[in-house]
Amino acid sequence: MMDFSQIDVEHLLNTVIEMAILYAPKIVLAILTLIIGLWVISLIGKGVDFLLQKKEFNVSLRKWLCSMATVLLKACLFISVISMIGVQTTSFIAILGAAGLAVGLALQGSLSNFAGGVLILIFKPFQVGDYIVAQGEEGVVEAIDVFCTFLTTLDNRRVILPNGPLASEKIKNITHESIRRVDLSVGISYSASVDDAEKALTNMALENNSVLKTPEPFVGVTGYGDSSIDLTLRVWCKTEDYWDVYFDINRAIKPALDRADIAIPFPQRDVHIIDKSS
């Protein structure tokens, strides 16, 4: 009588041996590929971080780029390893693509801010410490994150600007250049000498140590008002001295014109009283 249990065991054993012979080399090769691949990806991540650090990339952007590069390389390695074993990866890749699309649509606004942050950190239209005007706000840039930028206004308020609109609209970087021009308007009497006024204002500006000699101060007539000749005084100074020069020159204008006997007019009105009883 035939022993069926013995036949089943032998058949199972033969099947296992055949599968081991068939798949063992592939599994060993896949494991070796996985180990070597992870080691290579680690080296690539360190190399990318080193290069970005040499290029003086922002710390947040540098870490994110290294992380994304590592994740993408590991995903490619994982797909390669499972395909080496014999697993069909076509449907797997399709599922990953659909999931990525769904996540992208759900995070559309955040991705826009993220893309704007990457552009700002790469092209550097402004940096930490710059004074900018953007999105109807202005202040000193305190920090640039991947998703938003932080400003501190002159009255010490914190403003958080999303990077998406910030990267796609107009930005005024007030402190980007090393020098700035201070423009001031002055009105003098029609009876005064324009030449004397120009000379007095120029000398007054040159006496200020924070005013640059080159470009030299400029004074010119810009209009004729109802009661005054309008002059514009333009002086150049270092960017960090702008407000000191602005207030100092404003304060010094009147004494300078007084010393030159030049009057600063103010609106006057003659009132005539008519006595209808006479």
From TrEMBL:
Domain of life: Bacteria
Classification via Pfam families: MS_channel_1st, MS_channel_1st_1, MS_channel_2nd, MS_channel_3rd
Major localisation: membrane
The protein's name in its UniProt record: Small-conductance mechanosensitive channel
Protein family according to the UniProt entry: Belongs to the MscS (TC 1.A.23) family.
Organism: Pseudoalteromonas aurantia 208
Domain Mechanosensitive ion channel MscS C-terminal: 182-264
SUPFAM superfamilies: Mechanosensitive channel protein MscS (YggB), C-terminal domain (SSF82689), Mechanosensitive channel protein MscS (YggB), transmembrane region (SSF82861), Sm-like ribonucleoproteins (SSF50182)
UniProt cross-references to InterPro entries, sorted A to Z: LSM_dom_sf, MS_channel_1st, MS_channel_C, MSC_TM_helix, MscS_archaea/bacteria_type, MscS_beta-dom_sf, MscS_channel_2nd, MscS_channel_C_sf
Domain Mechanosensitive ion channel MscS, first and last residues per copy: 110-176
Localization in the cell: Cell inner membrane; Cell membrane
Domain Mechanosensitive ion channel transmembrane helices 2/3 residue range list: 70-108
Keywords of this entry: Cell inner membrane, Cell membrane, Ion channel, Ion transport, Membrane, Transmembrane, Transmembrane helix, Transport
Keyword hit for Ion transport: yes
